[in-house]
Amino acid sequence: MVTYIVMLSANELRNGTVFSYEDGPWKVTKFEHSFKGRGRGKVTVKARNLKTGTVREISYQSSEMVEEADVERRQLTYLYRTRDEAIFDGGDEGEQIAIPIDKVEWEIQFLTKKQEIWTLFFEEEPISIILPPTVELEVKETDPGVKGDTVSNTLKQAKMSTGLAVKVPLFINAGEKIIVSTEDGGYRSRA
Description:
The protein is built from no helices and 16 strands. By secondary structure, it is mostly beta strands.
């Protein structure tokens, strides 16, 4: 089997990009490009090590090359969570794959049962899941809606069916479905 190394320009790093750094896979959670006068540009990324969970800021010159991590993507179906693990159906004759909660702590808040999701594997070990930009979630608990209040910017706390807490407009009621951003966990619109 031949393994190819894919190189990326530092300018190509974006949220969600997985790259190799210090012998491990790192996922970009935030990126910033800056230019100072006539000098070369600088790329600063906030990244999370997908094996250890460590978060740090890494800087590159915009002309530097970065190695893309050798990760495999597989589609799994989310089943349930325990105290320590998220359990997925691997699709192969009932194979179940467990991912430690500490590796998917943010992402698990956006998953509903039986949802198909892309998962990243590094050296045959599941290390992260890939969320779409937005998801549809059901409001489980919130104060009753205020009729006619669709213009004000006042928000109230709502608890989703997955346990995620989201600030929503006053007109949203329990039982409604809303669109939530997976980047910041914020309300986007009614479903």
